[in-house]
Amino acid sequence: MRTRTPQNRKFLEYMGANWAKQKDSLPKKSAVAKYASARRDAVAKKFKGQILVFEAGAAKVRSNDTNYMYRAHSAFSHLTGWGSATVPDSVLVIDARGKTSKSMIFLRETAGHDSDEFFANAAIGEFWVGKRPSLKQVSALLDIQTRSLTSYKAFLKTLPKEKIRNLNKDAELAQFVSELRLVKDSYEIAEMRKAVAASVMGFESAAKSLKQAVGHQRGERIVETAFYAEARINGNGLGYDTIAASGPHACTLHWITNDGPVNKNDLILLDAGVEVDSLYTADVTRTLPVSGKFTHIQRKIYDAVLEAADAAFKVAKPGVKFSDVHQAAMNVIAKKTAEWGLIGISAEESMKQDVQLHRRWMVHGTSHHLGLDVHDCAQARREMYVDGILQPGMIFTIEPGLYFHQDDLSVPKEYRGIGVRIEDDVLVTKSGVENLTAALPRKSTDVEKWLAKFI
């Protein structure tokens, strides 16, 4: 049973005394500050004359008095540059009414040792969860005006209500800031490279864990946690729940339970990404033969998926539609399933919009934008996203797959229980795309050579 902290005056005075003077040195201005300022300027220009509110969000309860690890709202982080160190409940206000817009962050600054919050408040007290930065420290770091969160409600009362637009209640504002992230600036691209590099290390650790995973009743969890360790060591954590799907589990697109065995002759599909401290995340998938070698049928299916991915890579360049990337991959999937006699019609017939039989074994899309969210820019308009035109600076995935469920009677028995996905993160350049995840092998023979180093 938990006991209450004493609240008598004598104890409060005793707790507040004899602490060393705290050094509140100011940090250097973050490299992201100028980019975040430019993003705020773009928002202010679009919503001239308005007051725009972006909430970082509160900590989310996991159970009773325990919370999930905190993560700020992506729009807040994008417009402030504040990442994993964001103080919960912080609020960004952009006042675009004047000739020059003004921005400020309201945050719960650190409390003094003379406050009972220091030791008595388990949710936010320094004694419990660590010291928060001061207003001056956050201002210096992000190059933005700061105010105490305690003054926020009073500040709102001084503003004309009809001018206030809160992201959480404004679809147009949410759409604009989502579309603002479609093309990444140089800071974002550098952060995505960091996220990919950390994820590559995670995949290497996962590959090393396969020996230990084989034969364990929860072998998938061994692989999952090997990646997770690297995510916490080299980043803020996972960008999304890891999929470590061995054998027939690979046919379940979002298999995150990861409680199954890893058998020697299985393929294991690992879909995982590290989120770095700036909150940008990678999203990578590799399908690996646990034994180190593909069987004939595994290689046949894997190579077909690789061909689809390569076709998508070939068409991806500035000026083409985002949806053309998916179409290129589907042409290959339709061709292969037709050649294998699975659909009973030609690939051309299956590709017709009102037919699409090949999609039985790949129901998901080939690509999605990537950045602060694993499925980034989700509130963007269709004409800007799916039907949008590729531009340099865009980052998205290319991830075709084939999934033959154990109980799928429409395919030969040898196909059943095999799921394959190959997912890379690509950056649109002036002439095509750069494969950011090229450090991880893609060709089946290269995968085998790479695995030989670890198992």
UniProtKB/TrEMBL annotation:
Cofactor(s) the protein needs: Mn(2+)
One GO term of the biological process aspect: proteolysis
Enzyme Commission no: 3.4.11.9
CDD domains to which the protein is assigned, alphabetical: Prolidase (cd01087)
Swiss-Prot/TrEMBL keywords: Aminopeptidase, Hydrolase, Manganese, Metal-binding, Protease
One Pfam family in the UniProt entry: AMP_N
Bilayer-spanning residue ranges: none
Family the entry assigns: Belongs to the peptidase M24B family.
The protein's name: Xaa-Pro aminopeptidase
Natural source organism: Rhodoluna lacicola
Lineage: Bacteria, Bacillati, Actinomycetota, Actinomycetes, Micrococcales
